[in-house]
Amino acid sequence: MARASGQRHDTRLDRYVNHYADRAMGLRASAVRSLFSVASRPEVVSLAGGMPNIVDLPLNVVAQAMDSVVMNQGAMAMQYGSGQGEPFMREKICEVMALEGIQAHPDDVVVTVGSQQALDLVTRIFCDPGDVILAEAPSYVGALSTFASYETDVVHVGMDDNGLQPDALRAAVAAVKASGRQAKFLYTIPNFNNPSGITQTLERRRELIQVAQDLDILIVEDNPYGLLTLDGDPMPAMRSMEADRVIYLGSFSKTFAPGFRVGWVLAPHAVREKLLLAQEAAVLSPPVFSQYAVAAYLDQHDWKGQIVSFRDMYRARRDAMLQALEEFMPPGTEWTHPAGGFFVWLTLPEGLDAQAMLPRGISGRVAFVPGNAFYADGFGTRNIRLSYCYPTPEKIREGVRRLAAVMNQELELRDTFGLRGNTGRRQIDHGAPGPNVQ
Ligand SMILES: Cc1ncc(COP(=O)(O)O)c(C=O)c1O
Predict the structure, then answer these.
(1) Which value, to the nearest 10 degrees, does the dihedral of the CA atoms of residues 60, 306, 315, 231 take?
(2) 417-423, long-range: CB < 8 A, 24+ apart
(3) Which of 31, 166, 343, 372 is most deeply buried (CB count within 10 A of its CB)?
(4) What pLDDT does residue 1 have?
(5) Is the whole model's pTM more than 0.85, yes or no?
(6) To test ligand 1's pocket by mutation, which of 32, 111, 113, 116 has the most ligand atoms within 8 angstroms of CB?
(7) Which atom belonging to ligand 1 lies closest to the Cα atom of 193?
(8) Exposure class string for 333-361: b at 16+ Cβ within 10 A, else e
(9) 6 pLDDT above the threshold of 70
(10) Are 112 and 247 in contact (CB under 8 A)?
(11) Whether residue 391 has its Cβ less than 6 Å from ligand 1
(12) Is the pLDDT of residue 193 over 60?
């Protein structure tokens, strides 16, 4: 694959195969996207996708907001804008972040094309090929794709039911140091982790910040789901406890709508400056019309009330999934109990392999994402991510029933032919640094 190794091979005929940068040769379709076409067949219940359920958004309100933007501010809204994002948008973003205890100045915010682009910019300014990123395990597949596209090495850090483990973090940092390298940052999703649904407790957040201070680690806090809490109030963000070494990523994709592609980064001054330069190089300015549209929606609609109704809708779906799992899952299956967000993380009974089971799942008319999509190092084969955000509660129940039927068939095969190699430990227990630490 690398240039030095001579002729490159690709799976398709591509006359440009020898022209690409090495980083382009490493790009892979995400497992979630590959599943999209089968999972969206009408006969399949998809517990695979993580699309926010925005059918309850009042479209008349959104239409009015759009209308007022075009009629009253059209010439500005359709122009190029500030590379950092429009000042009014950055002010609103600070109001949103205040709901999770963050005191921030609009000058320290850079608006991005979704938080996905924030991940890209952060990786771009910090990482050279071969650099190490510490990432909690399991981690958001889109972040792993971005990290791979910059040819970084991901070293996973284990979680337990209270989130990322401080001891595992210390061990991972020590192992990276012993290999003569430095971890550029720690990537974490403290609220309702995608894919596991696990949330860092307050105590855990404090401990992790202490470790970061002791070991001089920069934290990238990715928080698209924090306001979608289903039990109780939102937790204080890590950034609200430590301003100097936390880079915070936020998004309107889950609390309003993903199609506008408005997200942001809040970063310490010097980092903000680099992010801004990188943003200008990438897109000149983030989409101005989207920022006007989102700001008009926030001004003209009870957006906090809308988040409360999103929470009620997701809670009914989460409860339907947990009830169905309780009712249908075979013995030996474990799952998380998310207090918010979109996902439940299932650990299959010993001997079952999620990737191998997927085609049988699709034949059984249920789709899910095998857990290894959420690890950079091949772990997670005994796990699957189930999302409850999109289907109705009835569909969720039916999907879980079908999944249990597929698992029961797999268990029969296992019992007839014996364990097929996947005796894996509970793979969320990623306490030791991954095999890619040399
Ligand atoms: C943890 C996490 N981070 C970032 C994103 C990207 O979101 P967006 O680019 O729409 O803001 C997602 C989307 O699902 C996510 O789950």
Answers:
(1) 180
(2) 419/350, 419/351, 420/351, 420/353, 420/356, 421/353, 422/350, 422/351, 422/352, 422/353, 422/381, 422/382, 423/350, 423/351
(3) 343
(4) 39
(5) yes
(6) 116
(7) 1
(8) bebbebbbbbbbbbbbbebbbbeebbeeb
(9) no
(10) no
(11) no
(12) yes
Candidate of 53, 121, 194 to mutate for ligand 1, largest count of ligand atoms within 8 Å of Cβ:
194
Question: For residue 435, what pLDDT is reported?
Answer: 32
pLDDT, averaged across the chain: 91
How many A from CA of 336 to the centre of ligand 1?
20
Residue identified by tokens 């609009």 is 106
Structure confidence at residue 426 (pLDDT)? 43
Residue found under tokens 């903000």 = 272
Report whether pLDDT(432) > 60: no
In the reported structure, the alpha carbon of residue 2 is separated from the centroid of ligand 1 by a whole-number distance in angstroms of 30
The three-state DSSP-derived secondary structure of 390-436 is CCCHHHHHHHHHHHHHHHHHHHHHHHHHCCCCCCCCCCCCCCCCCCC
Q: Which pLDDT band holds residue 310 (cuts at 50, 70, 90)?
A: very high
| Token pair listed for 290 | 């989207």
pLDDT score at 421 = 53
Q: How far apart are CA 282 and CA 124, in angstroms?
A: 10
Atom 6 in ligand 1: residue holding the nearest Cα: 116
- Residue with the smallest CA separation from ligand 1 atom 14 is 50
- CB of residue 250 inside a 6 A radius of ligand 1: no
Q: Annotate 304-322 with three-state secondary structure.
A: HHHHHHHHHHHHHHHHHHH
Find out whether the beta carbon of 108 lies less than 6 Å from any atom of ligand 1: no
Confidence tier at 26 by pLDDT (50, 70, 90): confident
> Does the structure show a pLDDT above 50 at 437?
no
d(CA 314, CA 224): 15
Whether the upstream peptide bond of residue 195 has omega within 30° of 0, thus cis, is yes
